[in-house]
Structures are given as structure tokens and as C-alpha cells.
Design a protein that fits this description.
Layout lengths: L2 H40 L5 H36 L5
Helix pairs in contact: 1-2
Length: about 90
């Protein structure tokens, strides 16, 4: 196995990690900003108020995009396993 092959595998793993985590992190960030703005306007400073909407938003993204996320991960792992014989 050459250095280039190792870098290709690591790059692919980082890319798939970013692709899969991106939507979850974006929704958590968006919901957090909206809830923080609402808290600032209404002057309600309850810590659990930020946690529950983020949890609901992330769960909704997993329900809506979960099959796509699993399919992407399975495709990447299948490709990795297919490439193993050529990694000598």
C-alpha cells in the first residue's frame, strides 16, 4: 500500500464524514440561532429551551435523510472493500 493510496482512503473517509454530518450540523446551527434570537427578544433564558428544538430538528433530519445517509455510507464502504485486492 502506497502513501497515495492511504491518503486517498483518508480523504474519502473525511469527505464522507463531512457529507453525512453536514446536514445535521447545519440544522442544529440554524435552530440554535433562531431559538437564541427568540430568547433574546423575549428575555427568556432557559437552557433547556435551546436543547429540545435542536434535538427535534436533528431527529427530523435523520428521519428525512437517513436512508440517503446510509446509502452513501454503504456505497463508500462497498467501494473501499472492492478496492482491497488492489491495495497490495
Amino acid at each position: 500500500m502506497t502513501d497515495a493510496q492511504v491518503l486517498e482512503i483518508v480523504t474519502g473517509a473525511l469527505r464522507i464524514g463531512l457529507v453525512l454530518a453536514g446536514p445535521l450540523l447545519a440544522v442544529a446551527l440554524g435552530v440554535g440561532v433562531v431559538v437564541s434570537l427568540i430568547q433574546t427578544v423575549t428575555q427568556i433564558q432557559e437552557m433547556t429551551l435551546t436543547f429540545v428544538p435542536k434535538l427535534i430538528g436533528v431527529a427530523l433530519v435523520i428521519v428525512l435523510l437517513g436512508s440517503w445517509m446510509i446509502r452513501e455510507l454503504v456505497n463508500w464502504v462497498t467501494q473501499l472493500w472492492t478496492d482491497i485486492p488492489s491495495l497490495t
